[in-house]
Amino acid sequence: MPDPGRITSQQDFGRELTLADIATQAGTSTRTLIRRFREQAGTTPLQWLHRARVRQAQHLLETTQHSVERIGAQVGFGSPTAFRDRFKRTTGVSPHAYRRTFS
After folding, report:
1. pTM of this structure
2. How far apart are CA 57 and CA 74, in angstroms?
3. Residue 42 — left, alpha, or beta (φ > 0 → left; ψ -120 to 50 → alpha)?
4. How far is CA 42 from CA 4, 36, 39, 59, 95, in A?
5. Which pLDDT band holds residue 103 (cuts at 50, 70, 90)?
6. Could you give the CA distance from residue 28 to residue 12 in angstroms, rounded to a whole number?
7. Which range of residues forms the domain containing residue 32?
8. Average pLDDT over the chain, rounded to an integer
């Protein structure tokens, strides 16, 4: 099973990842990957990836002046709207409100 902590660079977050790719890298089936990931991480691979992308976005919002759109793209969200929606669902605030509070 892949190590959830292995994906750490901004470039990795922006890369398109599929369950099939991750399962192949781990030498297992997609079904086994999902089951083992849930057992070890307590969540699905997709939910973990969304949270990891939001955590990276939080860091960028705190430490850069990049636009919200640029940060969303950097961490791998397909559109600014998808980024804003996921960020707000995960943190309870919009990216702009987060930046005002924590930068």
Report:
1. 0.78
2. 8
3. left
4. 11, 9, 6, 23, 26
5. confident
6. 21
7. 4-102
8. 86
Q: State mean pLDDT over 28-56.
A: 92
Question: Is a pLDDT exceeding 60 seen at residue 4?
Answer: no
Is 70 exceeded by the pLDDT of residue 13? no
Which of 40, 41, 23 lies closest to 31, judged by CA? Answer: 23
The Cα 89–Cα 97 span in angstroms is: 13
Handedness of CA 56, 59, 61, 63 (dihedral sign): negative
Q: For 9-25, what is the mean pLDDT?
A: 72
Q: Determine the residue type at 66.
A: H
Number of domains in the chain: 1
On whether the CB atoms of residues 98 and 87 are closer than 8 A, the answer is yes
Q: The domain spanning residue 49 has which CATH number? A: 1.10.10.60
By the 8 A CB rule, do 20 and 30 touch? yes
